[in-house]
């Protein structure tokens, strides 16, 4: 219920605000207003479900998302010389009312969903089969969802209490043989199975027997695989010619998402290159005049699926390291030229990578590409390090706008960067990309972590 409500509520508020302000100030709907409504609808649908978030997080996320969208719309209007065709008063009014109404309606919808799902006749009773560490985690998750209408009333396991997880031991209501009777007596509606596929019995034999017994009930059965410690990216269930297949580690850019991501890269990269073309010429002259050597530095990197690509940067050093051993730049590094220090600090050295984006080798937003030599080193030290290559590398990324830009001189710093990269793969959306772009523009003006 909450997911469907959230998906349509924010776009409806945005489109309604824009149309209302245009009508109130102009008395009619101009063609430009109708085009803008389509753009706003495309940028905001489907919206993210924020109904379970605390109020401060809702306000922060909604404001950030619409700042990013306003930046993209403003850039598009300016680059196409269309600012004179729209009423900026209507745009600013629509933006303000959209942020306020979206945040308020999201908080109200969250309360409505909690009230609706918490009504006595809509509450669902649940049990967990198994009492190990995974069962304890499931139990805690269900307990945290109690406000959304789920009541956990016990767990079942055949083992002795001394072998059960301390977090699940107090919830035990009997053995596996008692499950069906307990369901009938207590009106249980959901069963979460956390048993391992193997064990002392023939592999998985308990689960088929349990599933067969549960067919004598009307419960909803959920199997929770023991995937603790495994990094799951875009996990999903799909059908392969009638065979159910569970994906554990996939790229988020398949199907429509792939088209959206590529269109985003092509449109924004083309606009940006046109806008910054004088700056590209100025930086190229600065590099050429400040020290001998080529203007561009080409470095081997790992791209999508680990395939090797060539990434372009404006040269900022006197040496061109691109071999099997590459030393990262450090603060005060003597290899960096004075002009190179300036373009590194302001990220101007990264600008040629917009041409890598047009080539299709990179994206504007994605995990930053590391040198091939660094990948060979860190893939042995950091769990799931190479999973970040399930998407194209980016000019900027979720890690960079969260304080992990510049030198990674310790393993912990690199591990933190990788964690943010994997979080980006988990939660990608067009709105998230736009927020990252907006935050990047702000960061390059005062960030001092790159050198």
List keywords for this structure.
451 residues, alpha/beta, Rossmann fold, 5-stranded parallel sheet, 14 helices, 11 strands, 49% helix, 12% strand
Question: What is the topology?
Answer:
Blueprint (H helix, E strand, L loop, with lengths): L1 H25 L4 H14 L10 H25 L8 H31 L5 E6 L3 H12 L5 E7 L9 H4 L2 E3 L4 H8 L3 E4 L12 H9 L5 E4 L12 E5 L2 E5 L8 H35 L5 E7 L5 E7 L23 H8 L7 H7 L3 E3 L6 H7 L15 E3 L14 H17 L2 H17 L5
Parallel strand pairs: 1-2, 1-4, 2-3, 4-5, 10-11
Antiparallel strand pairs: 6-7, 8-9
Helix pairs in contact: 1-2, 1-4, 3-4, 3-14, 9-10, 9-11
Q: Can you tell me about this structure?
A:
This protein is α/β, with parallel strands linked by helices and 451 residues long. Helix content is 49%, strand content 12%. A five-stranded parallel sheet has the order 3-2-1-4-5, with helices on both faces. A two-stranded antiparallel sheet has the order 6-7. A hairpin with a 2-residue loop joins strand 6 and strand 7. The two termini are 49 Å apart.
SSE succession: HHHHEHEHEHEHEEEHEEHHEHEHH
Counting structural domains, the number is 3
Quick one: how many beta strands? 11
Helical percentage: 40-55%
The termini sit apart by 49 Å
Q: Structural class of the secondary structure composition?
A: alpha/beta
Largest sheet: 5 strands, parallel
% residues in beta strands: 5-15%
With strands numbered from the N-terminus, the spatial order across the biggest sheet is 3-2-1-4-5
Gist of the model:
Helix content is about 50%, strand content about 10%. The protein is of the alpha/beta class and about 450 residues long.
């Amino acid at each position: 219920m909450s997911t469907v409500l959230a998906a349509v509520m924010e776009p409806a508020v945005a489109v309604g605000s824009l149309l209302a302000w245009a009508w109130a100030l102009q008395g009619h709907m101009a063609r430009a207003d109708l085009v803008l409504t389509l753009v706003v609808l495309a940028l905001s649908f489907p919206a993210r479900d924020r109904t379970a978030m605390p109020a401060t997080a809702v306000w922060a996320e909604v404001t950030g998302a619409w700042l990013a969208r306003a930046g993209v719309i403003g850039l598009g209007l300016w680059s196409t010389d269309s600012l004179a065709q729209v009423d900026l008063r209507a745009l600013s009014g629509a933006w303000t009312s959209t942020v306020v109404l979206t945040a308020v309606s999201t908080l109200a919808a969250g309360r409505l969903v909690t009230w609706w799902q918490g009504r006595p006749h809509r509450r669902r009773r649940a049990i967990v089969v198994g009492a190990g560490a995974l069962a304890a985690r499931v139990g805690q998750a269900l307990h945290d969802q109690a406000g959304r209408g789920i009541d956990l009333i016990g767990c079942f396991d055949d083992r002795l209490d001394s072998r059960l997880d301390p977090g699940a031991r107090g919830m035990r209501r009997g053995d596996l043989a008692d499950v069906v009777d307990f369901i009938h007596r207590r009106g249980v509606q959901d069963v979460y199975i956390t048993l391992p596929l193997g064990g002392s019995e023939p592999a998985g034999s308990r689960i088929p027997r349990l599933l067969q017994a549960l067919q004598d009930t009307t419960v909803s059965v959920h199997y929770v695989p023991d995937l603790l410690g495994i990094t799951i990216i875009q996990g999903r269930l799909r059908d392969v010619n009638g065979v159910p297949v569970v994906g554990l580690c996939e790229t988020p850019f398949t199907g429509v998402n792939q088209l959206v991501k590529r269109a985003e890269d092509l449109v924004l990269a083309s606009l940006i290159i046109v806008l910054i073309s004088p700056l590209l010429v100025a930086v190229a002259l600065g590099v050429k005049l400040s020290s001998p050597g080529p203007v561009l530095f080409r470095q081997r990197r790992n791209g999508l699926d680990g395939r090797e690509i060539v990434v372009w940067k404006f040269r900022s050093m006197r040496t061109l390291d691109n071999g099997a051993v590459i030393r990262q730049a450090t603060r005060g590094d003597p290899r960096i030229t004075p002009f190179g220090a300036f373009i590194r600090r302001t990220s101007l050295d990264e600008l040629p990578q917009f041409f890598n984006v047009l080539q299709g080798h990179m994206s504007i937003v994605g995990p930053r590409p590391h040198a091939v030599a660094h990948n060979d080193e860190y893939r042995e030290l950091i769990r799931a390090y190479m999973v970040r290559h399930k998407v194209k590398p980016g000019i900027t990324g979720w890690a960079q706008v969260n304080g992990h830009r510049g030198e990674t001189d310790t393993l912990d710093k690199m591990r933190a960067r990788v964690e943010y990269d994997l979080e980006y793969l988990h939660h990608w959306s067009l709105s998230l990309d736009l927020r990252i772009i907006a935050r990047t523009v702000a960061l390059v003006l005062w960030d001092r972590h790159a050198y």
